[in-house]
Amino acid sequence: MARALEEMLMEELDVLYQGALFLSAGDGRRAEKLLLDTTKAAFRGHSDGTLTTTGRHPLEHLMLGRFLATGPWRGRAEPRPTRVPGERRDGVVSPDAFFRAAGAVHPRARAALWLVVVRRRSHAEAAAVLVTDDSGLRELLAYRDTFVSEAFRGSIRGPIQAAD
Amino acid sequence: MHPGDMDCLSARAGLWPPERPRLVGEDQARARAHVNRCPACARFFAQDRVLLDGLEALRRERAPLEVRERVFHALASARSRDRGRGPVRSRVRVRPGWWTAAAAGATLALVAGIAVTTTRAAGPRLEDPQGAIAEDYIRRAVGQDFLDTSDPREVTRFLQRELGSPLTPLRADGLVVERVEICLLDGTRGAMIRYRMEGRTISQYVVPRVGVRARPPAVVHQRVGSGPQAVPVVTWADPSLEQALVGPVDEVRLLELARGRERP
Question: What is the largest distance, in Å, between two alpha-carbon atoms of chain A?
């Protein structure tokens, strides 16, 4: 049964907000812009029947699509992930540290990390949302190391020790 | 790597996310066997466990009130602009009738008063009073605050908490407070106090403002839409509040109620 858009928004708004902040690397203004853009796109899709109203997280998937399709990074080559040696990998990571760390990776990788690391989606589900295959997703998730290093760097609470 | 062993990426993908219960099939058993033997994969999942507390805190982040308001305002604006272009699939319905026109009139009057008396840049203005009502309806659908009470002191405490304004409800013989709720008027957070008098509902709209020019209560005949009907609305202001009173009673009576208000 088709759901009202207001109902969908009410259910997903907090997750959308978290996701928008993550995709915008913690920039509140850009995050809100993404949220509003998603809302308007959702209205257009809901009105003309192209927006899926059943299933899980339709607005979150729409927002990811809008983020990847409308950013200034369209068509740019993705940089190779950098290896970060000797970083501390424990301690409590704050939400702000996660958001800022997302800015250290390429936007498509950011979207993949949001789905897999933060939202805990299976690889198959994340690949479907990002319209890629398993190997494509693995390339994006290769940025996980960089992201995690930056996240811990932002919230480090202990002595530095060598990692593998 | 053992013969028949899985590679690291496949093993990690097969057991992802690790906290989710799963039926153990052959692939999961092989993945688990690999992780049990692979120090790098064991460190990968151990590191992921360390992240979980932080991720849990991230998932508790709520969209702030002002962001929620702007999102639903954007939706209401989109609906307003789309009116007349075909059916809109939504559960938001503006019921026709006197009350709708009255609320629209109060909204218009307040908006007009705010435009004259404030220099603050507001959000996008709604041209359509029915759009303003839809916006207010959606605003309440967000699950924002309201209070059903007949105690004027509770209304005052509610308004102090929600708007920073310790307004005392109107007092008059036979006038009973029923409810107070937050509403959104032209993108600004205000409140509506609902009263009951002689079986009729009267609404008082309150919008906090800074630097408003004070003016005494006066009746405004607010035309709504293209129809001939003009709705009497009483509006007044002091330096911190714009107010309006509307209801299915004689306008002289409305004016008396507004003039007879008591402030703390």
Answer: 56
Partners of residue B207 on adjacent β-strands: B242
Read off the tokens for A28. Answer: 């509140």
| Peptide linkage before B17 cis (omega within 30 of 0) | yes
Kindly provide the ipTM of the predicted complex, given to two decimals. 0.84
The verdict on a CB contact (< 8 Å) between A122 and B17 is yes
Enumerate residues 120 to 139 of chain A having a beta carbon within 8 A of any beta carbon in chain B.
120-123, 134, 138
Q: Reduced to 3 states, what is the DSSP secondary structure of residue B188? A: strand
How many beta-carbon pairs under 8 angstroms link A with B? Answer: 111
> How many Å apart are CA B92 and CA B80, to the nearest integer?
12
Report yes or no: B147 and B155 within 8 Å, Cβ to Cβ: yes
3-state secondary structure of B175: strand
Q: Tell me: the pLDDT tens digits for B73-129?
A: 888 888 877 764 433 333 333 333 444 444 444 555 554 444 333 323 333 344 455
* A50-63 mean pLDDT: 85
Phi/psi for A103 (5° steps) reads -70, -10
